[in-house]
Amino acid sequence: MKTQFIWPILGIVLLAGCNGIPTKSEKDARKQQRETTADFRPNGKPPILPTLSADSGLSNFLTYAALNHPTVEAAYYDWLASIERITQARSLPDPQFTFQMDIQNAVTSVMPGLMGAIPWPDKLRLGAAVASAESRAKFFAFQSAMLESAYAVKKAYYQLYFLNEKLRITHDNLQLLSNLEQLARSQNEVGKVTLQDVLRAQIEQDRLKTDLINLEHGRFALLAQFKAALGLKAEAPDPTIPSRFESTPLDLTSEKVFDTAMAQNKRLQALHADILAADASITLARKSRLPDVSLGLMADVQANPTLYRLPGNPGTLSLPIWRDKIAAQIAEAQANKRAAEARLSAEQIALAADFAERYHRFQEATRNFELFDHELLPKARQSLEVARSAYLAGQIDFFNLTESERTLLGLELDKAEAASEREIVLTELSLLAQGLTPSTPAMGQPSVPMVSTSSSRKAKASGM
């Protein structure tokens, strides 16, 4: 009867299992997991991706990449795995089922029992603290992966836009050269110039046609980069290119961006988490000097009354006598902390240097853009008109006329290049800060068309 009573109870304990008590950091991590999973992988499945069309805003493309890119997904699951390690670290070791039977001419005793190891107080808590800090670092790595995906999308997006600008500029100049050829033909027909001027116009057009072919081929490469940034495989259909251009915010002072970078940069935050993990590891290593206890309880169900065997048999106490091993564990943890602090310091130095270099590039690109837009291009257009009139009057030759056209073309392409450089550098600054929203249009201003028309070129270029 006693045996029939004890075995079912023992079976229920072993098969049903138990739950431990989560730490505060584990609860916080689980809460963050639930909030993030609701958007990123609801019910463990990929979310519904935004539909991309030519009219979609840049934020739709950024969201698509963040939810779809496998690099971001890998960082997400690395973070989830690290949360599970918190539970493992704070849990007691599995108990052991023991069984002893004494047999002489018959079974004289049957003693089932349980035995479990009990670490010294605080060891499990400190182990959970180490795992929590490491999980926090993984979370920041996940956020960094999302921001990196946004940067890749924006970089390809700006490069595609300004390549389209270069194509438009080259097409406009090709049409201009066609008009100059007709002008040379009319002058040749009345005997004012030779056929050489017509041939020169044709040579310039052939050169620009080759430039157009090269730009079109470059467009295929940029489209492949844009496709990859969205997390689309090679066999997937090409993505739709946005028809409207959205600039990066320009209302940021250098101090604001740098302060934000130092406070919110995800790489710095991950390194801070590494230092916290190293701190907890040092305390945990020092606790290894203290013994752990293994306790158990056995019951002789054959005895009447039931005989219980208390700690001592079975029962063990670990003896941490290897002081050199304990000293090595502590030294290792201390060295890991110093290494983490050095990595943080190095990252802060590198961040400051990267910021200074990129902000200089931004200022240089802005000055160049304003120089081209406000000074050089208006003068180049005026110079071309003067040269056209002088050519009709026979005051200059066709070479000087085409040279004015070349100057205008070069300045327009340089302006587009300066605008592209400025937008890409601003995106890099946003990535360094990693607290700025990369999808916000500039100051809430309306977007401008991805491919602008010639009649509104000047107005829209000034709004880049």
Characterise the protein shown here:
- There is one protein chain.
- The protein has helices at residues 2-16, 24-40, 58-68, 70-90, 123-189, 195-229, 254-264, 266-287, 323-392, 398-433, 457-461, and strands at residues 96-103, 107-118, 244-245, 293-300, 307-309, 315-317, 448-449.
- With 464 residues, the protein is of the alpha+beta class.
- The protein has one domain (2-461): Up-down Bundle (Outer membrane efflux proteins (OEP)), CATH 1.20.1600.
- The strands form two sheets. Strands 1, 2, 4, 5 and 6 form a five-stranded antiparallel sheet that branches. Strands 3-7 form a two-stranded antiparallel sheet.
- A hairpin with a 3-residue loop joins strand 1 (96-103) and strand 2.
- The termini are far apart.
Summarize this, please?
The protein is of the alpha+beta class and 464 residues long.
Topology of helices and strands:
Layout: H1 2-16, H2 24-40, H3 58-68, H4 70-90, E1 96-103, E2 107-118, H5 123-189, H6 195-229, E3 244-245, H7 254-264, H8 266-287, E4 293-300, E5 307-309, E6 315-317, H9 323-392, H10 398-433, E7 448-449, H11 457-461
